[in-house]
Amino acid sequence: MAAIELDGVTKRYEDVTAVSDLSLTVDDGEVFGFLGPNGAGKSTTINILLDFVRATEGTVRVLGHDAHRESVAVRARTGVLPEGFDVYDRLTGRAHVEFAMDSKGVEGDPDAVLRRVGIADAADRKAGGYSKGMRQRLALGMALVGDPDLLILDEPSSGLDPAGAKEMREIVLQEAERGTTVFFSSHVLEQVEAVCDRVGIMREGELVAEDTIEGLRDAVGTESTLRVTTAGDAIPDTDALTELDGVSSVSTDGETLLVSCDGDAKTAVIGELESQGVEVTDFETREASLEDLFLAYTGRGDGTADEPEVRA
Ligand SMILES: Nc1ncnc2c1ncn2[C@@H]1O[C@H](COP(=O)(O)OP(=O)(O)OP(=O)(O)O)[C@@H](O)[C@H]1O
């Protein structure tokens, strides 16, 4: 069974289409990273899953239930860490977890939950005095109450220091071991890279990529960009360069040549230019990374990468 099934989901506000024709399936037990820059439509999608926002068009099923008509059944089996979670200043950490247990109608040891998220020492302190990271841990603890089948985490690492972000990833992995489906959003690829089976990348309301991290890596491949600065009158024969083994494309920009090629084709490229009598004054290479790919998809690259320059 799929834990989440979105089919042709669109959410329009008066003058903004927050989500546009989104179809996405997350399998049971999968850890799915939902990525995209600010305003891409991640929170809107999450709110649609939880029926806090109603889709303008499309169908949404969560844990086998219709997200709108059977939202109570969905929420009973779902743990949520909402974006911008606010604590009740005057309640202790333990009281927060007790509150979450009451609302879910489950029994349990609040201190065990607080231990799990690393704030057991602060159980008796008022949450108003908690740091941002402690609040985030508390929110995660509340989401874990009742051993949900689906965990929805909206930007779970925000406010966490590196150690906290690592613990968050460990908890996600432990939950996944238990068979929980985890759907979490982030605008930082590296936070989801370590834990996700698959990622979806949103941009301006549309899903622009959906793949495994492996698949994304394959799309990046071992390609790198070789930037060569030339001088003198000899005009490089770009066709001859393109024919070299491992070279996939060559473009020129004034005296600069941009060559996309395998890492090991660089020497051949420089050699070919020299044999053409082209003077090479400088060259540098840049390895493509997953982050480059993410930036290419989300259009936050160097300003020229509107569309990914990869064969996904
Ligand atoms: N209630 C609303 N009324 C009007 N426009 C809205 C509303 N909620 C969201 N939007 C718009 O929909 C778009 C998507 O917003 P959304 O909050 O889903 O993005 P996001 O990917 O979660 O961003 P962030 O990373 O900043 O949280 C934005 O342009 C936002 O301004």
TrEMBL record:
<dbReference type="Pfam" id="PF13732">
    <property type="entry name" value="DrrA1-3_C"/>
</dbReference>
<dbReference type="InterPro" id="IPR027417">
    <property type="entry name" value="P-loop_NTPase"/>
</dbReference>
<protein>
    <submittedName>
        <fullName>ATP-binding cassette domain-containing protein</fullName>
    </submittedName>
</protein>
<dbReference type="InterPro" id="IPR017871">
    <property type="entry name" value="ABC_transporter-like_CS"/>
</dbReference>
<keyword id="KW-0547">Nucleotide-binding</keyword>
<dbReference type="GO" id="GO:0005524">
    <property type="term" value="F:ATP binding"/>
</dbReference>
<feature type="domain" description="ABC transporter">
    <location>
        <begin position="4"/>
        <end position="229"/>
    </location>
</feature>
<keyword id="KW-0813">Transport</keyword>
<dbReference type="InterPro" id="IPR003593">
    <property type="entry name" value="AAA+_ATPase"/>
</dbReference>
<dbReference type="Pfam" id="PF00005">
    <property type="entry name" value="ABC_tran"/>
</dbReference>
<dbReference type="InterPro" id="IPR025302">
    <property type="entry name" value="DrrA1/2-like_C"/>
</dbReference>
<comment type="similarity">
    <text>Belongs to the ABC transporter superfamily.</text>
</comment>
<keyword id="KW-0067">ATP-binding</keyword>
<dbReference type="InterPro" id="IPR003439">
    <property type="entry name" value="ABC_transporter-like_ATP-bd"/>
</dbReference>
